């Protein structure tokens, strides 16, 4: 068994606000065996002298789309499956190189990609997949233009299109069947569209996605599988409805208000802000072919982004880390740290991308902290993220080693 003993480093524990010195970490196989402030004895471990560098848990991004291979999502539905799949591989590698050892895919990736990564066929972060996101007709997951009639065989509803991030389903019975189908095909959790969105052509931001009966049916089906529902939602009204119907994580949530945030806190719902996505759409969307309709919708949500973090913080709503980037924008993933740093403390932001991420995934004790029994997902970083988060940016330039489940994925241990 491959064993590693890390010495002479500073340990970043996301439950603290300062680095800890004098700790040693022993990895055996894919697991952390021991973390101690006293010297650890191991007969056969390879000793890694960290030389003062920081050792920290791998990062968790709770909102990505690894098959969003281009900005034009409606167009990519028609790309050949092989092409989309092959383009998703370097996107996943990029995430892992930036230190994200676990990601939750919010629509698009399914069992095949998850398995391909876990058995080593493709290099990437550990995936928690949603299959295809579920949207009502004319909702955020419906890429059809106004000129398209509601053909039940439209590409977006077809299960063999790898480039389709979503599928269109209406009505309680059809939704129950669709949710069961996503679980049968390997979804870890279910993603629904509970309000209008930016990148879709015919749904105003303020539109509500689904009736309450439909939302409840999806939640009941997810709970029956021992898992939960994540919902794309921007406005306070759409968030309130979703949370009352039992949705557990709200994605984006830019247009929140104080009473709605209080309701979320009461229900123990999480929010996954994705502020960098709106920066990317604002600055680069046009260049990469974002439609004029979508471009016009960005400002409403973008300008509310930073304020929303204050509202959530005030109400005590737990925030996970999300990025939600598309196509050429994936490289901006870690810049989400810097955007949030305008409002939140570095320790709060680190917790969002580690311990809170683990909590959302039901993986506390396994992910998000370096502790005995956890997966050995480890980053060796030049710098102190509690003081300056930029050491986690620039495509992993300051991350000297990325280790996932005990395997060195990038960098070196010298
Ligand atoms: Zn969304
Ligand atoms: Zn998304």
Fold and architecture overview:
The model has no long low-confidence stretch (mean pLDDT 95). By secondary structure, the protein is α/β, with parallel strands linked by helices. Helices cover 30% and strands 21% of the residues. It has 13 helices and 19 strands. The protein has helices at residues 73-76, 81-97, 111-118, 172-184, 212-224, 236-244, 258-267, 275-284, 292-302, 305-315, 335-340, 346-352, 355-360; strands at 3-7, 10-11, 20-21, 24-28, 31-36, 46-49, 54-57, 59-64, 100-105, 126-128, 133-135, 166-168, 190-193, 229-235, 249-255, 270-272, 378-381, 399-404, 407-411. Helix 4 (172-184) runs parallel beside helix 5 (212-224), helix 6 (236-244) packs parallel to helix 7 and helix 8 (275-284) crosses helix 9. It folds into two domains: 3-58 and 365-411, Urease, subunit C, domain 1 (Roll); 59-333, Alpha-Beta Barrel (TIM Barrel), CATH 3.20.20.140. The chain is globular and about 70 Å long. Bound molecules: zinc ion (2 copies). One zinc ion binds at residues 197, 232, 251-252.
């Amino acid at each position: 068994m491959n064993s590693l003993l890390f010495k002479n480093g500073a340990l970043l524990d996301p439950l603290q606000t300062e680095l800890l010195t004098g700790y040693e970490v022993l990895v055996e196989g894919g697991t952390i065996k021991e973390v101690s402030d006293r010297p650890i004895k191991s007969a056969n471990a390879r000793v890694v002298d960290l030389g003062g560098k920081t050792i920290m848990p791998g990062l968790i991004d709770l909102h990505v789309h690894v098959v969003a291979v281009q900005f034009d999502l409606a167009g990519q539905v028609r790309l050949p499956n092989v092409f989309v799949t092959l383009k998703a591989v370097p996107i996943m590698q990029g995430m892992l190189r930036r230190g994200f050892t676990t990601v939750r895919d919010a629509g698009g990736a399914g069992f095949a990609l998850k398995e391909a990564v876990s058995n080593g066929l493709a290099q990437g972060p550990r995936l928690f997949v949603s299959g295809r996101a579920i949207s009502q007709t004319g909702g955020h997951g419906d890429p059809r233009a106004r000129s398209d009639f509601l053909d039940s065989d439209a590409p977006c509803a077809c299960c063999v299109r790898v480039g389709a991030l979503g599928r269109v389903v209406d009505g309680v019975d059809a939704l129950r069947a669709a949710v069961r189908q996503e679980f049968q095909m390997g979804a870890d959790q279910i993603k629904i569209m509970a309000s209008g969105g930016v990148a879709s052509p015919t749904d105003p931001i303020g539109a509500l996605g689904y009736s309450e009966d439909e939302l409840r049916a999806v939640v009941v089906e997810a709970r029956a599988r021992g898992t939960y529902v994540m919902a794309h939602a921007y406005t306070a009204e759409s968030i309130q409805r979703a949370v009352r119907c039992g949705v557990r994580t709200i994605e984006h949530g830019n247009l929140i208000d104080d009473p709605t945030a209080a309701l979320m806190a009461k229900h123990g719902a999480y929010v996954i802000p994705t502020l960098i996505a709106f920066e990317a759409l604002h600055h680069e969307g046009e260049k990469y072919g974002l439609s004029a309709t979508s471009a016009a919708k960005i400002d409403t949500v973008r300008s509310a982004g930073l304020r929303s973090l204050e509202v959530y913080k005030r109400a005590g709503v737990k925030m996970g880390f999300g990025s939600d980037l598309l196509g050429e924008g994936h490289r901006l993933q870690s810049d989400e740290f810097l955007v949030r740093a305008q409002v939140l403390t570095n320790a709060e932001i680190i917790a969002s991308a580690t311990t809170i991420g683990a909590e959302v995934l039901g993986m506390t004790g396994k992910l998000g902290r370096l502790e005995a029994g956890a997966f050995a997902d480890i980053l060796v970083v030049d710098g102190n993220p509690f003081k300056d988060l930029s050491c986690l940016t620039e495509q992993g330039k300051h991350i000297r080693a990325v280790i996932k489940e005990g395997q060195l994925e990038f960098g070196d241990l010298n």
